[in-house]
Write a structure and sequence with these properties.
639 residues; alpha+beta; 8-stranded antiparallel β-sheet; 6-stranded mixed β-sheet; 19 helices; 33% helix; 28% strand; elongated; protein biosynthesis; WH_DNA-bd_sf; translation elongation factor activity; nucleotide-binding; EF-Tu_GTPase
């Protein structure tokens, strides 16, 4: 069986619910208030088998006060049945519902002229002409108009046949998809617990699967599917195009509400900023202005939002613009998902459009480069959308799975798509840890490389005699990037490209050479030799002043060059050890303190065969680097 979802649309009291009952035998009005008032208030559900097609039917309310319920019910429908009463013709919600279906990008539908038994043939023809004028230019422009009567049975068989013929033309996406089920209802079944229902808009789910429950407040939770039901029959699996009732294990009923979603773990991400392509219908009466407060209807959710127009100040009727929606509550959406916006008082539909960035950051208005990238997100080419997604991901990059949500890539195509872009040099893979690789736009990598090289250039300019610099301190100047692992990886990339020289501890620009004169380098060599010979009782820096001659003012820098090159270690500003002596000192102290309760300064002095003049700063140095700590008069090993 092929599964599709049909949604009704039309003005109040035009017979939508009665027509569904005539088609299916199912009364969609389930609430006591609906029975008492004789009007549909909330969405109702039925099903109909038409040969090889199984239709799930969502019946929506037609009253203007319940348009938000109609919008929730229209989520995920494959085809629409526009219902117009022959004795009433086109009415306000006929127009509004049709406009909503167009904004939601519904592509298939039929028109049912109900209550045809109440009027004469001439009236039917006049109403038919009004309908043709209404649907001109829409997906219903060439749809048949079937005259029906739920009371007499007129046209019901013809409508079934027309629906069967239409279903045969409906094209659904093929290939693997990830599950999404926007929740439109929740209730408790005795002995089973919480059950949620919704139309499956993509993917499939089976009993026992683990799903991610997005709660509409920015948080989510993993939940297990205890059981599944499709139109009253238990099933082991449900898929796209079906209505589903999902029994969730361990979920309290009071925590579930319309607007939440179930999805494949890791697929969706909640966001309070969404970038969109915003359209105002040509026959609309109100333009959408910058900073306008609106109600966003997306999936089964309704959220207050503020419109920020990016490339204009106003979107007039018949036009479109790029915008960001700043939301009061987070939503979970995907690239290309249609939405509708209504005015803040919920009196009229203003427009709608498609999501371009499901999770966005604020874009400055009329920022040319950013707007150009946003326009690329509307491309038909997945490669173009992927590169725009990478550009916006910035320094944080993205993973291949993100492309399904953020760029509309089909899951089975993500691997080849990414591999092709990497081979072409249009994406840069950055490995941060085992099994964790980010994909970053080349522009962002180039920007980071420039910043690292620029930081080194400034340090070299400030310290022209220092051969290289502490790698950690260099990258600390770029901590605003927010990802040290990424900075380290890009630095390694610069080293491999031979633009930077160094190792895990110290780095320098490859084109930098310390500006030591011949005499300064000879003096440095003498200093290093003297400290190597001096062991734990080295000479003081001032002892070299006489040898420095005209380089006396640069003596401190020369010592720092010797430290940077790894020959000396700075203990204090007046006390340096050779690198070999400093390593031997740490070895002896570690060995001594490992086997004893601790050691006094005097004992460390004797251990090193030096004097108190050197032993005290040595002990303070060992404390400073974290090898030892002071405990009264003793130094003990830090474990």
């Amino acid at each position: 069986m092929r599964d599709l979802i049909l949604g009704t649309a039309g003005h109040i009291d035009h017979g939508k619910t009665s027509l569904v009952k005539a088609l299916t035998g199912i009364d969609c009005d389930r609430l006591p208030e609906e029975k008492a008032r004789g009007i549909t208030i909330d969405i109702g559900f039925a099903h109909l088998e038409l040969g090889a097609v199984r239709l799930g039917i969502v019946d929506v309310p037609g009253h203007e006060r319940f348009v938000k319920n109609m919008l929730a019910g229209a989520t995920g429908i494959d085809l629409a049945l526009l219902v117009v009463a022959a004795d009433d013709s086109v009415m306000p919600q006929t127009r509004e519902h049709l406009e909503i279906l167009k904004l939601l990008r519904v592509r298939y539908g039929l028109i049912a002229l109900t209550k045809a038994d109440l009027v004469d043939e001439t009236t039917r023809e006049v109403v038919g002409l009004e309908l043709r004028e209404l649907v001109q230019g829409s997906f219903l422009e060439h749809a048949p108009i079937v005259h029906t009567s739920a009371h007499t049975g007129l046209g019901i068989a013809e409508l079934r046949a027309a629906l069967a013929g239409l279903c045969a033309t409906v094209q659904q996406r093929t290939g693997a998809e990830w599950l999404r089920l926007p929740i439109d209802r929740a209730f408790v079944v005795q002995g089973h617990g919480t059950v949620v229902t919704g139309s499956i808009v993509s993917g499939s789910v089976a009993t026992g699967d683990e799903l991610e429950w997005h709660k509409g407040d920015g948080t989510s939770e993993r939940v297990r599917v205890r059981g599944l039901n499709n139109h009253g029959r238990p099933v082991e699996e449900v898929h796209r195009g079906q209505r589903a009732a999902v029994n969730l294990a361990g979920v309290p009923h009071e925590a579930v509400r319309r607007g939440q979603e179930l999805a494949r773990p890791g697929y969706l991400a909640a966001s309070k900023v969404v970038t969109v392509r915003l359209t105002v219908p040509a026959d609309g009466t109100h333009a959408i202005k910058h900073r306008l407060p609106v109600r966003l209807h997306v999936g089964t959710a309704e959220v207050m939002a503020t419109v920020s127009l990016l490339d204009c100040d106003t979107v007039p009727p018949g036009q479109w613009g790029l915008a960001q929606l700043f939301l009061e509550d987070p939503v979970t959406v995907v690239w290309g998902q249609p939405f509708v916006v209504r005015d803040s008082s919920a009196e009229r539909t203003l427009g709608g459009g498609q999501v371009l960035q499901p999770s966005a950051t604020k874009v400055r208005r009329r920022h040319t480069e950013a707007i150009e990238q946003i326009e690329r997100l509307w491309s038909d080419a997945p490669e173009t959308r992927t590169l725009a997604t990478a550009w916006f991901a910035g320094f944080h990059g993205f993973t291949p799975d993100d492309l399904v949500r953020a760029a509309g890539a089909e899951p089975e195509h993500v691997g080849p798509l990414v591999s092709g872009l990497i081979s072409a040099g249009k994406l840069i893979p950055i490995t941060l840890a085992a099994n964790h690789t980010l994909l970053v736009h080349p522009d962002r990598i180039a920007e980071l490389e420039t910043r690292i090289l620029g930081t080194l250039a400034m340090l070299h300019a400030d310290h022209p005699l220092v051969t290289n610099h502490d790698r950690q301190k260099v990258l600390a100047r770029l901590d605003y990037v927010g990802d040290e692992q990424l900075l380290q990886a890009v630095t390694d990339r610069l080293i491999r490209a031979k633009k930077v020289v160094g190792d895990a501890r110290r780095i320098a620009r490859a084109d930098f050479k310390p500006k030591l004169s011949v005499n300064q380098r000879k003096l440095k060599d003498k200093i290093v030799d003297a400290h190597t010979a001096g062991g734990f009782t080295p000479p003081e820096p001032k002892e070299f002043a006489n040898q420095a001659g005209g380089n006396a003012a640069a003596l401190g820098d020369i010592f720092e060059v010797a430290c940077a090159e790894g020959f000396l270690v700075r203990i204090t500003s007046e006390f340096y050890l050779s690198a070999e002596a400093e390593a031997e000192m740490r070895r002896r102290v570690t060995e001594r303190l490992t086997t004893g309760p601790g050691a006094t300064v005097a004992e460390i002095r004797d251990l090193l065969g030096t004097t108190r003049k050197y032993a005290v700063p040595v002990c303070e140095y060992l404390d400073r680097i974290g090898l030892t700590r002071r405990a009264g008069d003793l130094r003990v090993l830090v474990r």
